[in-house]
Amino acid sequence: MINKPPAARQARVIDLTAAPGERASWDRPSVVVFAWSVVELLLVTNAWQISSSLRVKALRLFGAEIGDHVVFRPRTRVKFPWKLHIGDNSWIGEGVWIHNQDHVFIGSNVVISQETMLTTGSHRHRSDMALVTRPIHIEDGAWVTSRCMVLGGVRIGRSAVLRPMTVVDADVEEDTVSGGGSREVSKRF
């Protein structure tokens, strides 16, 4: 008699057609969301549209709270402008993606550099892939350098600096320089 090995247990697969939350974060009628998609494409994301003030006006028209003297460079993306809050004198660099399924609060005199992504949404990966959102708070004077990724639930402290390509999944203390391969932290000033 030959002993056969027991059948291997197969990993469970979540049926994504049953995943809750596809439109849970919209907070607006679908006509508004679709209208924003068109305006974003023509006036905000469009690399040929060179007017920062026109981008800001379009965002404000759809509910964004944006202070004075804010600069929005070309190729920026904003998922839901009605969940965006920016203080005075801040700069949003070229190619920044604000995927704000929850609120994003950016203080005054903040720099969000090129190709950075701020994302407030994720999914319950152990059960049903339902949407989970948490806000992002970036305090006055912070600098999120190029190609960083800031995840929901994070607070970046006043005058903190994140080195390029940092993934931020925990709070960052004020007046520090952090990130990079070593994740070391030092004082900024």
Q: Would you write up a description of this structure?
A:
By secondary structure, this protein is an alpha/beta fold. The protein has a single domain (28-187), classed as Hexapeptide repeat proteins (UDP N-Acetylglucosamine Acyltransferase, domain 1, 3 Solenoid), CATH 2.160.10. The chain is built from two helices and 19 strands. Helix 1 packs antiparallel against helix 2. The model has no long low-confidence stretch (mean pLDDT 90).
Précis, in short:
The protein has 189 residues and is α/β, with parallel strands linked by helices. Helix content is 13%, strand content 25%.
Structure keywords:
189 residues; alpha/beta; seven-stranded mixed sheet; five-stranded parallel sheet; 25% strand; UDP N-Acetylglucosamine Acyltransferase, domain 1; globular; 2 helices
Q: How are the strands of the largest sheet arranged?
A: 2-5-8-13-16-18-19
Proportion of β residues?
Answer: 15-25%
CATH class membership: Mainly Beta
- Main sheet properties: 7 strands, mixed
Q: What overall geometry do the principal axes of the alpha carbons give? A: globular
| Helicity level | 10-25%
What is the strand tally? 19
Distance between the termini: 76 Å
Task: Let me know the CATH homologous superfamily.
Answer: Hexapeptide repeat proteins
Overall structural domain count? 1
Mean pLDDT metric: 90
Any low-confidence stretches, pLDDT <50, length ≥5? none
H/E series: HHEEEEEEEEEEEEEEEEEEE
| Annotation field: number of helices | 2
CATH level-3 fold name: UDP N-Acetylglucosamine Acyltransferase, domain 1
**Could you say what the CATH architecture is?**
3 Solenoid
| CA-atom Rg in angstroms | 20 Å
Structural class assignment: alpha/beta
